[in-house]
Amino acid sequence: SHRRGPRADMVPEIAAAVGFVSGLLRTRGCVSEQQLQVFSGALREALTEHYKHHWFPEKPFKGSGYRCIRINHRMDPIISKAAGQIGLSLPQLYQLLPSELTLWVDPYEVSYRIGEDGSICVLYEAAAAKPPSSYGMLTCKNQMMLGRSSPSKNYIMTVSS
């Protein structure tokens, strides 16, 4: 039996990213469920197309900048295009979405940060761990995450109490 290599499709990662952005639109309650479905489908197709030749499961961080979805007082063109399909204008999008949002969609891991110095939250992490080659790499994201690897126990206590 031949060994299966790394999974080449992007389905779970893109689903996580699309679900996250749709969820942000949903929380404001101005967008109908039907619109959200159309938006999700359009965004999923656009991302699949955009990432097609920029997806390297054996080197998960390669092309990360290209795949990164970003709102930085400028709307990410992929999001605005999908939103256009449900008639959302740019001003409406700016009201519905955070003004600073970075969404990293990489093989095996999807994470986001709201605000330029917000903490990074992981949306999706594959159970099949990333290839060993990626561990030693210090990407800009890893460097930012190093600081949050061990929160002190008191901190955890105050949050739960």
What is the count of DSSP helices, taking H or I runs of 4+ residues? Answer: 7
Number of strands: 4
The second-level CATH architecture is Alpha-Beta Complex
Strand order of the largest sheet: 1-2-3-4
Domain Anti-proliferative protein: 51-71, 97-116
Organism: Melanocharis versteri
Protein name: BTG2 protein
Family: Belongs to the BTG family.
Overall description:
- The protein is an alpha+beta fold.
- Helices cover 43% and strands 14% of the residues.
- Helix 2 crosses helix 4.
- It is globular.
Topology:
Blueprint: H1 11-27, H2 33-51, H3 64-67, E1 69-72, H4 77-84, H5 90-96, E2 100-106, E3 109-114, E4 120-125, H6 140-146, H7 153-160
Antiparallel strand pairs: 1-2, 2-3, 3-4
Protein name: BTG2 protein
Pfam family, one: BTG
GO cellular component, one term: cytoplasm
How is this structure best summarized?
With 161 residues, the protein is an alpha+beta fold.
